[in-house]
């Protein structure tokens, strides 16, 4: 191994060591607060890997991922699915949380949770100001700022979905499809 390679190896070793120390400090308050807020299942907890911690605009940005493997079975109240190689990438869950540096450095777990609850409520309030209250189903387009969705628009959306049966989609999937179509064709806004 050459001297240049040795320097790169030493830099990576030092980076990994210091990153582990930073994560270790965050395990007393920030990480438990995040886990409390996320309410992960035991299975998700065993698959969670924290892979990055950095400082961005006076905030500690913590990034992790819940990683699934082919053959894993995921389920909800309606169905069970065994993950294929293709589905695994869709199921992995990215977690990104930013906590003000001052809070991460000095606050208790309880104070971090209070901060996160307050920040979440502020985001919900801001969202409500912009989009209104409620879920905003297709039949209630006033939440999205459209007066009405006419039959021509619905037919255009249906014509764009030849690869699957529209009626097999959930209400949320149909709504997402409609929002995408309207945004692409200048009849609404896409977020």
How would you describe this protein?
- This protein is α+β, with helices and mostly antiparallel strands.
- It has two domains: 107 residues, no CATH class; 44 residues, no CATH class.
- The strands form two sheets. Strands 1-2-5 form a three-stranded antiparallel sheet. A two-stranded antiparallel ribbon has the order 3-4.
- Helices cover 51% and strands 16% of the residues.
- It is extended and about 65 Å long.
- The longest helix has 24 residues.
- The termini are far apart.
- The relative contact order is 0.08.
- Helix 2 packs across helix 6.
- A hairpin with a 2-residue loop joins strand 1 and strand 2.
Order of the strands making up the biggest sheet: 1-2-5
Shape: extended
Order of helices and strands: HHHEEEEHEHHHH
Report the biggest beta sheet as strand number plus sense, adding barrel if it closes.
Answer: 3 strands, antiparallel
Low-confidence spans: pLDDT under 50, at least 5 residues? Answer: 136-147, 187-191
Oligomer: single chain
Helix content: 40-55%
What share of residues are in beta strands? 15-25%
- Rg computed from alpha carbons, rounded to a whole number of angstroms: 22 Å
Number of strands: 5
* Distance, first to last CA: 50 Å
Number of helices: 8
Whole-number tally of structural domains: 2
The average pLDDT is 79
Structural class: alpha+beta
